[in-house]
Amino acid sequence: MTETATTLPRPNGAGELLQLLLDGQPRTRAEIAARTGQSRSTIASRLESLLAAGLVAPTGEASSTGGRPPATFAFNPAAWLVLAVDLGAVHARLALTDLAGSVLAEAEEPMVIADGPEPVLERVVALGRGLLTDSGRGEDLVAVGVGLPGPVEHSTGRPVSPPIMPGWDGYDVPAHLGESFAVPVLVDNDVNLMALGEHDAVWPGVQDLLFVKVATGIGAGVISDGKLRRGAQGGAGDLGHIAVPHVSDAACRCGNVGCLEAVASGRAVADRLRATGLDVHDGRELVTLVRAGNLEATKAVREAGREIGAVLAACVNLLNPSVIVIGGLVAEAGEHLLAGIREVVYRRSLPLATQHLRLVPSRTGGRSGVLGAAAMASQHVLSPAAIDAGIARELAR
Fold first, then answer.
1. Is the pTM of this model over 0.85?
2. Which of 1-5, 43-47, 219-223 shows the lowest mean pLDDT across its residues?
């Protein structure tokens, strides 16, 4: 369908105008005016502000229909930077990206989230400052995005009773990091950001997607109608604490019994195998055993996949996604986990819901969390109001 002034919102500032250019397609002043219904003088003024801030750049000339060829302009994602932080139970990954999510530099190291917020976040600050210093563009940082391995109240950025994060409940993560970086800090559950990162990087055309992380815990991120859905209090996607059919005696750290996490997480599977005499203590060692061809470990991972599939089948019937992405440490065991999940999902879900369903491994190479954190931060700073404020800041330098 041809876009016209009647099918697009009428921009009232530089930030609104930029929304029309975020797709990266070069446009002339005349094309922008035709799409917005604004006068050429207004368009010129808004473009001038965006050009001065570096958010829009000239891209050449359009074909001439007579006379001098008109200049074209497009969004310049390299103008500003965001810092993306993905914190897991035992790792930290940081990335410095542009506004389109292109990774410019990154750092990763072991880090134990149970050590508490202050030592963990101070180390994040040190790593982030190092990336900014090495880039030579510290003044271009406009936002920080953070993923945490537990429930988060997104509106405040505070963790809410996170099971594997002692000392983090209610901690003001944005305030702590904001003292060091002096930019907006946005925080969300790590699986939500993995869903966002996988969607933006691999499946941008898919409207309905589930991302399932299988690691120390189990969780899901929900993309519906092309947007991340957090639920009323940010608790959507807590897959790991749904009761598994026919399991009633497995104690979960949440205080209930029979939860999926207590049955099929990397820790739960490793605990069961260790009870049989195998020397395995966590999900990473479990994956190593599977890759080495250990039959008992392989059988246990496949059975864990079946248990996950039993819960996912209900999600498929309820949400009808077109893609389910399986990620997290235990997913690195390969097709054994996926095979168990597929076996039950396709058997237990309604035919209409699985007719075109794709169940696939993550394709972001462990980067889904930082890519999602970068996308969350970029979406915030690219909102019309934030753009106008950012331009004012740039012009005041």
1. yes
2. 1-5
